[in-house]
Design goal:
single chain, mainly beta, eight-stranded antiparallel beta sheet, 12 strands, globular
Length: 219
């Protein structure tokens, strides 16, 4: 019996704290297995199509980066794609600072600080660990000329015990978590995200002390 499911590819966004981040709109069989070894595809020498960071906006002036999402295309097999979501040690970034642009010393210090933050992000990227991936193929629709899905969508997510759930044609969901940092008053701030595939979940969370420090104007 064929199961009818609808899947979507969407940018990570919040809708009642729940969003579908990946998927496709075709009919396929759904199947899942557990794996003890890392099944993430080897994308060495593949072309990077797009990279975006998993960001928690703490305020207009502060963010915490928890990981990144990178999409790759196979340069030798057209229409072959892999998207990998990775986590790293959280990086706090203060985007607004009070400084006098007329003072050369403060301008230099500001640029140096921003470069340090970028260097740290780059270093965290190198140290990041994959916990979710999708793999799919496309071809050209002979009628419309547009790209269309031509394969199952393989998906893997790492469970809390380190094993992997490997499945196909399932939904990957993300729920944004909040935390009250109002010190007696209600002030809910985004503090993390939970990625879920079926009954398997993977949580990325910022440190509460980092959130409070950024809200108080720290860097």
């Amino acid at each position: 019996m064929v199961t009818s499911k609808f899947f979507y590819i969407m940018e990570l966004k919040m809708k009642r704290y729940m969003a579908v981040i990946f998927g496709f709109s075709l009919l396929f069989w759904s199947h899942s297995v557990m794996a003890q070894t890392n099944p993430v595809p080897d994308v060495t020498n593949w072309k990077v199509v797009n990279t975006s960071r998993i960001e928690l906006r703490i305020s207009d002036c502060a963010s915490i980066y928890l990981g990144l999402e990178t999409e790759y295309s196979n340069p030798t097999v057209p229409g072959d794609f892999v998207r990998i979501v990775s986590r790293h040690i959280p990086v706090t970034v203060s985007k607004c600072r009070d400084f006098n642009e007329r003072l050369a010393s403060e301008t230099v210090a500001e640029e140096y600080s921003r470069q340090e933050e970028q260097d740290l992000l780059n270093e965290r990227t190198k140290q990041s660990d994959p916990f979710l991936y999708l793999e799919w193929k496309t071809d050209k629709d002979p009628v419309t000329g547009h790209d269309r899905l031509s394969s199952d969508v393989l998906l893997g997510i790492m469970a809390p015990d380190g094993n992997w759930l490997v499945t196909k044609n399932e939904k990957a969901l993300v729920e944004f978590m909040t935390e009250n940092v109002g010190n007696g008053k209600t002030r809910n701030i985004f503090s993390g995200a939970e990625f879920r595939v079926g009954g398997i979940y993977h949580i990325l969370r910022a440190n509460r002390s980092d959130i409070i420090r950024l809200l108080e104007g720290g860097s």
